[in-house]
Amino acid sequence: MKVKGFKNPGKTVTGNRRPWAIKAKVLQLILEASRETYPNEFSAALRAEDGIIVEVVMLPGTLQGEAAAILQLHMLPANYGAVGTVHSHPSGVIRPSEQDLRLFDGFGLVHIIVGEPFANDSWHAFDAFGNPIELEVLS
After folding, report:
1. Is 139 among the domain residues?
2. Selected catalytic residue, list 41, 98, 116, 136
3. What is the CATH number of the domain that holds 60?
4. pTM tops 0.90
5. Is residue 41 annotated as part of the catalytic site, yes or no?
6. Which residues contact 112 (CB under 8 A, 6 or more apart)?
7. What are the average pLDDT values for consecutive 10-residue runs of the chain, which has 139 residues?
8. Domain extent at residue 98
């Protein structure tokens, strides 16, 4: 995944606290959007409140293709509580690529990658360094 037009946005994360959970309805939206955009990558930003990911933020101008998605992170509203990104890997490989790691290093505290078949067990969360982290799914 590539990022366009956003420099050092990690400072915009409210409280610099990494989320510990994601709402189940948000995860389901991510999985459905990933299935709908297949074979292209799905990509969006994530917003959290009180350490819980509560929203998928679709950014205007995001480009989605079979090999990559390009997020227009400069389109995020200021002070919106963005904490990271989500994107799909249509190949089913649920590990960060080198491009993903560059994005993780420059933006956000948590990143979710979902892979084909886009089921409840085909996603992982990663920190800014690409290390796997646990996110509790809340109903």
Report:
1. no
2. 41
3. 3.40.140.10
4. no
5. yes
6. 22, 30, 46, 84, 85, 86, 87, 123, 124, 125, 126, 135
7. 42 63 98 96 95 93 78 79 94 94 91 96 96 96
8. 2-133
